[in-house]
Structure prediction request, 530 residues.
Amino acid sequence: MKTRALIAGLGLCALASHAHADRAGFTESIASGDMTFAGANEEGSVEITGYFRGRGETLYNFDLDRGLTPSGKALFPVPLGDPSAQALHGANMRLRTDLRLRGPGTGVSAVVRADLLDNLSLGSTPNLRDGTPGASAGQDSPLQALRIKRAYGEAVLPIGVLTIGRQGSQWGLGMVANGGDCEDCDGGDAADRIAFVTPLFDHLFALAYDISASGAQQSDRSSSRLIDVEPSDEVSSVTVAFMRYHTPMARERRARGGRTNIEYGAYLSHRSQDKDIPASYLGSAPSMFVPGDVVARGYSATASDLWFRLGGAGYRIELEAAYLTASIEQSSLLPGVEFYDPATSDQFGAALESDFDVASATLGLNAGFASGDPSPGFGAFPSAADGPAQPGDLDGLQADLPFDTRVDNFRFHSDYRVDQILFREIIGTVTDAIYLRPHVRFPIADAGGAKLIFQGAAIASWAVEAASTPSGERALGVEVDPSLRYESRDGLVASLEYALLLPLGAFDNPQAGLDARSAQLARLQLLFPF
Prediction:
């Protein structure tokens, strides 16, 4: 078996207990390599890869000078000392390490991803022993200096690969389930699962069981481990998937030989929860739970996703489409209080990417669609504490129980980058929207193994539901994102990015008589891979 394929989880978008859609993520992660673990020896081995990343940025007029929403909020934070000021500045860093520990022989390994100072803002932990930041003598270590994001075991069996533990989630383009592996990613999905993948008939077939949430837990007598005190409140997911896939090396070899690469895959995932104990996650959880804390839930969600890639010498066309449906029979969080109607959700999303080599440049057109909900606000990152959105708000709950029980806005994963300002920063992700993104890439200079590359894109976007935008109009904006990228022969990567957003009618403030004005961004990113 030549291609080592790791099942890392299948994903679904589900209604959360307060009845808005929330992604849970199983995905299949394909790692290039050799299933025979070439290079392993009788004593085992250790592989360490990763990078150090530093980023600095300036954000200019991200509130678009259009005033406050009806809820009294700006579209984006503004300087506290002078709300009329325009610019915000910041810098952050991350040290990522991926470890593969191979046991003696060739069949067993453990994998760990640890991020140190993960997206830590520079200057955020000053030493205050003298009382004020101005007298700081240096930086204190943050409380969460080390974050273990993945830790799982892997065994190569005669009939496939078995994995168990907390594993990354990446499927297709990363539109729904995204492992956060890109150099500019901030988050990433992971899931606790048992998974098995086997090659059969030139395809990969996978089966996975995820323990998405274990529910209420209490310590045992020795306080050394936690006990699940109510099995019925567990949230579990079962996924089946298949894929025809080529490793990057095989893809390149076939393209050089004039062969077309046709790759595709699909998964079907189902998640469920019978009962719930809201006291275990709302406010300060008690040390002991009682039978009266258990409430009915009846949660069921199903996700289906199709992925397709066509490629060859000088071109790539890739498509992902997902349909997500969910229902909660009883969405009340209060014991003894029940709603008559279930909360439901039907969502659809699709993304297209393309690249075509023309002379020394690469051109392409990307596009995407995310279904909307007619409730006010985009529903990108709603909070139950905020309550339903008002007309004119940027965000908010898309359901208003017990009156409005539907949540139909599809949300792209926030690490699936479409632009630099509108979806990435102001809205937070692609949801309730249609976008077109022509793009270009070409080398400016190549000397001594070092490269200087220009990359540019223009993004035009519209809302699916006009009622979701602050003004009630569909046209969101046009954004231009040029950048310069330097790649040294030693591995150093430096990117200088600029972005200009020209907002359209969707962000105007007709009540205040204010038109939305342009926003700008400048970002410098340095990547030191190892």
User: Anything to note?
Assistant: Helices lie at 248-256, 422-427. Residues 248-256 form the longest helix (9 residues). DSSP finds two helices and 22 strands in the chain.
